[in-house]
Amino acid sequence: MAWPTFNEASPGAVRETVPPPRLSWRTTLPELRERPVTELPGVGPRIAAALGDLGVRTLADLVSHYPSRHEDLSNVKPISDLRVGEKATVVARVVNVKPVGRPVRGRVPGLSAQLYDGTGYMPATVWGRGWLLNQLVPDTWVVVSGEVQRKYGLQLAAKSIEVVDDPATLGESAHAGRFVPVYPANKAINARRARTLIHRGLDGAGRILDPLPAAILARQNLPNLHDAIHEIHFPSDRDCLKEATRRLVFHELFLIQTGLAARKARLEKTETGRRHRGDGRLLNPFLKALPFGLTGAQERVIGEVLEGMRSEKPMRRLLQGDVGSGKTVVAVAGLLSAVESGGQGAIMAPTEVLAEQHYLSISAALKDLPVNVVLLTGSQGAQERRAALEAVAGGEAHVVVGTHALIQKGVDFHNLSLVVVDEQHRFGVGQRTEFKEKGVTPDTLIMTATPIPRTLSLTLYGDLEVSILDELPPGRKPVDTRAIAVAERYEAYESVAEELEAGRQAYVICPLVEESEALEDVRAAEELYDELVTEIFPERRVGLLHGRMKAQEKREVMAAFRSREIEVLVATVVVEVGVDVPNASAIVIEGAERFGLSQLHQLRGRVCRGLHPPKCFLVADPKTDDSQKRLDALCDHQDGFKLSEVDLAIRGEGTLFGARQSGMPDLKIAKLLRDIDILVEARREAFELVADDPTLRKPHHRPLRREIRDLLGRDVDWLFKE
Ligand code: ADP
Ligand code: MG
């Protein structure tokens, strides 16, 4: 008798290669990530492609394609009961439907449907849903929500219109019941189909095991993942929906925080920094010579920075301080402490204008001290640049001032021990500057004047120490800010004329043209400049500054403005960050509706530094609600932290990180402004867990490790190497 052979023909071998049954009862998110949506009945290539457009490719994507909201059908009213002014939801059948508005590029902007629900007829108009036109054939059941208005009789100004099953089957189907999920949809996947698919996906997935440690769930009183996912789609009631949301928000934030905590632990273990031992021989005379006393906040933050530098752990500190809060002094204190300890300090600015200004003010402040300050910019002549590079490499240069790009690009330092990054607006995990100098990691101080809400800084910068300058130098006057219609812009210039009359100076900022049209930008700037020179201020000295000018020209213009030779500076956004001319007391921003909120706040910051009550004019004809809101916010608030929250609220958080920009995943469900409490808890739990198990190697932490890896990508692999 021959032994069975396991060659290709043998049935045994074939059985070996057959995948296990698909609908296994227990599953994990990583397993679901391996299963394409085409596995579901009824999902062919066409539907799969449409789902792909929504970012849904696998069963894991599908079950985490969370509803954007739920329609509460417990509030449905019969048409005959509707009153003017009331917000209501009706379930009715379509009698007929027609497009409204003029088509734009072949698209119907809105539609108007005649509805009948057995108690009465009512027309409903809804904008932005023109593409539903063909789906709303007569007799389709729809759920419509909106406001009842009087317009040739009553009509429903609808915010939403969704196709539903015959309500006779209410409660049975995924589409109706007390809470019906409404999904981000597109033309091919309407809300109804999305519901069906997700219902099937949840059925097909099986029991989803929870990667979060049970102890944390118990402590935080959170439902398990499986229940939360089911409840967020098809909630049993309002409370369950709330708990499910809380759980999934926690989940998302906890993973990110654990990644950050692991990163911090890893860096602390593997890197050695320099133990700075400043003796104050440079710092004390510098502080003493300042023409002002430090604010309490400056004193505190300088203390924090020096403390961080004394430790052997490499310092990674984020300094947040509003425009004009005096961050430069803090930076110089750190730099001097580095020099006192025999190291070199570098300060990097985002623009050449700013680098130049730092160079001028820092070398002036240090002129009586034995500190050699060197400038390094792209526009230096070859010879000058070579001399600077040599001084940096040889160690004769103590403090190096340059632009971000320049210093990051492989300049050879003799002994770099502190890097200050000034005016860093966006700085994520992925692209954080990592300086490695002969085995020693220099300390870093990242300064930003675009304060971000605390929630956001915890999320984005969760592995950095944070210092906050929450006090402005005394005597700062709030900037009197006014929004002015374009037709009235001469009033703004009349007011500026008064400032000039009193011997002060002003900025006029040109409207922002598309970035890609830099030449357009220059043309707009030149036009505005001509208008000012010939019509508005013919008797004043007006200067022009834009991005396309040669560095030398820019330098001369800035010098002339500083020395008051130029009284009015017409500029593009090149002055956005950090430029400091205290005698300037007025700023006019033309085309203000085109700027972002933080940009406007930065620009306004140019005039809050002097002793005179400053003025800011936002010349704008806002065309959208959002731009109106931005202008209102600026007129109402001076505080950059407050403004950054308003900004976040206006912009929404969907595009907040931009994964490429920051190395952070976009948030799917957490809303940072809303979920601060959950974030704080998630962060605490994450750091505790990592303190106990830095590489997540304990068996019950493994699923968590896998989740983080799937969320944050390969970049985090090094965190978990044993
Ligand atoms: P920012 O935080 O926006 O970078 P700067 O460091 O440029 O602010 O400081 C803004 C202005 O305030 C500068 O002219 C600076 O000399 C001045 N300044 C800084 N600290 C103080 C202080 N404690 N008292 C008075 N003026 C100060
Ligand atoms: Mg600054």
TrEMBL record:
Gene3D superfamilies: 5' to 3' exonuclease, C-terminal subdomain, Nucleic acid-binding proteins, P-loop containing nucleotide triphosphate hydrolases. GO terms for biological process: DNA recombination; DNA repair. The keyword Signal does not apply. Coiled coil: none annotated. One of its GO terms (molecular function) is 3'-5' DNA helicase activity. Residues 488-654 form the Helicase C-terminal domain. Residues 1-20 are annotated as: Disordered. Keywords: ATP-binding, DNA damage, DNA recombination, DNA repair, DNA-binding, Helicase, Hydrolase, Isomerase, Nucleotide-binding. The keyword Disulfide bond does not apply. It catalyses: Couples ATP hydrolysis with the unwinding of duplex DNA by translocating in the 3'-5' direction; ATP + H2O = ADP + phosphate + H(+). Residues 308-469 form the Helicase ATP-binding domain. Transmembrane segments: none annotated. Its EC number is 5.6.2.4. Plays a critical role in recombination and DNA repair. Helps process Holliday junction intermediates to mature products by catalyzing branch migration. Has replication fork regression activity, unwinds stalled or blocked replication forks to make a HJ that can be resolved. Has a DNA unwinding activity characteristic of a DNA helicase with 3'-5' polarity. NCBIfam families: PRK10917.1-3 (NF008165), PRK10917.2-2 (NF008168), recG (TIGR00643). Belongs to the helicase family. RecG subfamily. This is ATP-dependent DNA helicase RecG. It comes from Rubrobacter marinus. The gene is recG.
